[in-house]
Design a protein that fits this description.
The chain is of the alpha+beta class. The protein is built from one helix and ten strands; from the N terminus they run H-E-E-E-E-E-E-E-E-E-E. The chain has a single domain, classed as Sandwich (Jelly Rolls). The chain is globular, with a radius of gyration of 15 Å.
């Protein structure tokens, strides 16, 4: 039962994080996003230690859900802590600062590390829905850090 609850919490936090990220993606960035992106925070809260996840005092876990319209982009960014992303529907492509792309489909998930500078894109003509959980977000701080477009990578 505890394992199932922990999985649910992780999934819920992921959904909230994704929603918030997409919502912020419509705001000005060092590398601006593009296209229609709608996001909403589902929940924000601190976690107590001992839940099988490494959490740090003074940080929140944020759960968000996002809908990326056709041909939309997050703009280049990073996160203050690890980020768990789950693709609910559609196809989502992530480019890292070396311009290497990874594409994810429905039911697939991935983790972005705090050191990862990346851009997420919906390169299709259909909506993409993501659930995101942001870990180690400073209380009162942002879960997204705008980054400039890497030199030699023409992906925006």
């Amino acid at each position: 039962m505890q394992k199932r609850r922990t999985r649910w919490v992780i999934a819920a936090v992921g959904a909230v994080v994704l929603t918030v990220s997409v919502g912020l993606a419509s705001v000005a960035f060092a590398s601006p996003g593009s296209g229609p992106i709608v996001g909403s925070v589902i929940a924000t809260g601190s976690m107590r230690t001992g839940m099988g996840l490494a959490v740090h005092p003074g940080t929140n876990t944020v759960v968000a859900q996002y809908t990326f319209g056709p041909h939309s982009s997050t703009g280049w960014h990073s996160h203050p802590g690890k980020t768990l992303v789950v693709v609910q529907s559609g196809t989502f492509t992530v480019y890292h600062d070396n311009c290497h792309a990874m594409t994810y489909g429905p039911g697939q998930s991935f983790v972005e590390l705090p050191s990862s500078i990346h851009v997420g894109r919906n390169e299709t003509g259909s909506d993409v829905q993501l659930g995101v959980v942001y870990f180690d977000v400073p209380i009162g701080g942002a879960f997204r850090i705008d980054q400039p477009q890497p030199a030699g990578c023409d992906v925006a």
